[in-house]
């Protein structure tokens, strides 16, 4: 069973009338996602892509019963859009915007305190429940419904690993891009806990990278809880130079902190099976499941 998304997910798109919003919303609709509205301040009352456009998230939710928001808003106004959705009590927000200013994201984090909203991102490729719902900008075509949950900090590697899992004869329940920026919403540990609560999740794949301490925090949780399902991890950035940002705003290798080797050691010590190379992840999770079934 998928997490975060289901057949009842009704999506509104903040920033739908811009180029990126228009393009990716159309692709989401083609995939089968139930997009019900757009939100662009000053353009309320119009129609775009055959959908009503509203000035505010509150108005859109009241008129369409939307329960998820996809944010296609540029960095300078992305935090404002997130906070608007949080204050409207939107249950789920997915933000793909990259490099939202850190101070802006600290305001978003404050707005999340005490709320029931789950924020995925920013700088997330989104969430994909194969055959059910797509909220994001990820490529599709190689996904397949199944029991493997994928938690990732990397967009490109998520597409690669999704294909590997499919070619290994397995499938994905949900792929979740937690976001590559230094300050974001849903973390790897919280996402992992969601998969553990799903009785149909048969295994979990983690895709981590340098920077931050999310992988180490998750390793502590896994060591304490000792989940009964296989967990496979790929950590990239072993040879990344120090003190240089590598693509993502959060992928920064500092001496003694956020290094790939430390993350690998922590996860391995917690019982996680480490894939030695990106091209072996699908094979590794398949073999882990086979050993468990033997």
From TrEMBL:
Belongs to the succinate/malate CoA ligase alpha subunit family. The keyword Ligase applies. Its EC number is 6.2.1.5. One of its GO terms (biological process) is tricarboxylic acid cycle. PROSITE patterns: SUCCINYL_COA_LIG_2. This is Succinyl-CoA ligase [ADP-forming] subunit alpha. GO terms for cellular component: succinate-CoA ligase complex (ADP-forming). Gene3D superfamilies: NAD(P)-binding Rossmann-like Domain (3.40.50.720), Succinyl-CoA synthetase domains (3.40.50.261). Residues 4-100 form the CoA-binding domain. The active site is at 248 (tele-phosphohistidine intermediate). The keyword Ligase applies. GO terms for molecular function: nucleotide binding; succinate-CoA ligase (ADP-forming) activity; succinate-CoA ligase (GDP-forming) activity. Keywords: Ligase, Nucleotide-binding, Tricarboxylic acid cycle.
